[in-house]
Design a protein that fits this description.
Pathway: Cofactor biosynthesis; molybdopterin biosynthesis. By secondary structure, the chain is an alpha+beta fold. 28% of the residues lie in helices and 39% in strands.
Length: 145
């Protein structure tokens, strides 16, 4: 693993308030970056063949520290100039933004690869758990230990 570029991690947060794409884009504003790749994850109305009415996210107290480690590793592995990731917790309705990740680089290839790595690693390793409520009255925890 390489070292992240100095100051490459621009914005990281886990919050109960609505997420804003403009905030993330502003955090990655850099004249040297020709490519910014942005991923926005929203609450969908179905999962596993069932209708979803809404969900709640909960984060372990170590989640932000783990997110920081993940972001620094992605920045180092891909040599990108900027990394940002914000995730919601609390109750979310259908259509609400649950997560935004973005990376900025001199070239699009690095930005695409880094953003894909960032969202995949965040979902696999950052202790944030989803509790889904289904239209049939059942519920399910996703990602919980």
């Amino acid at each position: 693993m390489g070292e992240p570029k100095k100051g490459a991690v621009k914005l990281l947060d886990i919050r109960e308030t609505a997420l804003d794409v403009t905030e993330v884009m502003n955090a990655l504003d850099d004249d040297a970056s020709g490519g910014v790749t942005l991923f926005v994850g929203r609450v969908r109305d179905h999962d596993g063949g069932k209708g979803v009415t809404g969900l709640d996210y909960q984060a372990h107290p170590t989640a932000l520290a783990r997110l920081t480690e993940v972001a620094e590793k992605v920045a180092a592995d891909h040599g990108v100039a900027g990394v940002a990731a914000v995730h919601r917790v609390g109750h979310l309705d259908i259509g609400d933004i649950a997560v935004i990740v973005a990376t900025a680089s001199g070239h699009r290839g690095e930005a695409f690869a880094a953003s894909r790595d960032l969202i995949d690693t965040l979902k696999a390793e950052v202790p944030i758990w989803k509790h889904q409520a289904f239209t049939d009255g059942t519920d399910e925890w996703v990602g919980a230990p």
